């Protein structure tokens, strides 16, 4: 088969916090329409890697290219505007607001300047409101929460809250960065969530997800990127990765 144009490429990507090189010289490509898992022991630099891609941190070295465009110096809302949306390791949903309101906040963050604007709902026209509502309802439908739209988000179980977090990140066709989506979930909820991720990818999304438990991504990911002490130590299929001596060593030593 012909090689596809990568969705996302990072070249010699790095960031230092004082003396700590949290991400160091990482060169990697992520392909469209696939599930890429970023794994590695705690402190490997996985969340930092997402923070770099999504513009929360500015790299101290290297380049990030999304669909051929250099996005290295873009700010978070500009990255979101390009169609890259993320969730956080600790889900930030508004417990007291309805599921629909949460999804609408997510929609506004993507379509406007930023979170502050979304939260303040500064006097905008009805049309915007209706567009937000329609977008939010589509997102809720995609994550299987259409029937719970009017409930307070805080009333949902852990899995439901994760789904709200994903709905908040869903734009028309974004590429999702999910930071430890299964954190705090029981095995059954985890299986459900993995099913949701698979459905989203079948529907045309590309997903990159961070996970520190290697076993969780073995049956899910098409491609796995392994970080250790901020560096890429391996990338490949689950079968390839699980046999890689450097990966086995990193996990045994952690
Ligand atoms: P992971 O997600 O793989 O567990 P992180 O990316 O959160 O790891 O962290 C990698 C390293 O970078 C850790 O040593 C962490 O303490 C450090 N780090 C992350 N963010 C910051 C920051 N803003 N300031 C200083 N150190 C940081
Ligand atoms: Mg992390």
From TrEMBL:
Q: Name one Pfam family in it.
A: BCA_ABC_TP_C
Going by the UniProt record, its keywords in alphabetical order are: ATP-binding, Nucleotide-binding, Transport
Could you state one GO cellular component term attached to this entry? plasma membrane
**Which example biological process does GO assign this protein?**
L-valine import across plasma membrane
Q: Which GO terms describe its molecular function?
A: ATP binding; ATP hydrolysis activity; L-isoleucine transmembrane transporter activity; L-phenylalanine transmembrane transporter activity; L-valine transmembrane transporter activity
Domain ABC transporter stretches: 8-254
Q: Does the keyword Electron transport apply?
A: no
PANTHER family referenced in this protein's UniProt entry, alphabetically: AMINO ACID ABC TRANSPORTER ATP-BINDING PROTEIN, CONSERVED COMPONENT OF ABC TRANSPORTER FOR NATURAL AMINO ACIDS-RELATED
Q: What is this protein called?
A: ABC transporter ATP-binding protein
Q: Which organism is it from?
A: Deinococcus wulumuqiensis
Organism classification = Bacteria, Thermotogati, Deinococcota, Deinococci, Deinococcales
């Amino acid at each position: 088969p012909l090689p596809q144009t990568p969705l996302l490429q990072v070249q010699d990507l790095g960031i230092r916090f004082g003396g700590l090189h949290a991400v160091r010289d990482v060169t990697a490509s992520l392909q469209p329409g696939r599930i890429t898992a970023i794994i590695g022991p705690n402190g490997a630099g996985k969340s930092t890697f997402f923070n770099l891609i999504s513009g929360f941190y500015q790299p101290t070295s290297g380049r990030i290219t999304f669909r051929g465009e250099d996005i290295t110096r873009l700010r978070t809302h500009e990255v979101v505007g390009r169609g890259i949306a993320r969730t956080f390791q600790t889900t930030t949903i508004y417990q007291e607001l309805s599921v629909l309101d949460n999804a609408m906040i997510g929609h506004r963050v993507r379509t406007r300047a930023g979170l502050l604007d979304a939260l303040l709902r500064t006097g905008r026209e009805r049309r915007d409101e209706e567009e937000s509502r329609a977008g939010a309802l589509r997102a809720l439908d995609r994550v299987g929460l259409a029937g719970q739209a009017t409930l307070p988000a805080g009333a949902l179980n852990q899995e439901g809250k994760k789904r709200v977090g994903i709905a908040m990140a869903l734009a028309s066709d974004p590429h999702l960065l999910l930071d430890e989506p299964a954190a705090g979930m029981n095995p059954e909820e985890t299986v459900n969530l993995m099913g949701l991720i698979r459905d989203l990818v079948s529907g045309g999304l590309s997903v990159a997800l961070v996970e520190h438990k290697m076993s969780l991504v073995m049956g899910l990911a098409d491609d796995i990127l392994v970080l250790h002490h901020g560096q890429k130590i391996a990338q490949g299929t689950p079968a390839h990765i699980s046999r890689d001596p450097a990966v086995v060593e990193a996990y045994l030593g952690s």
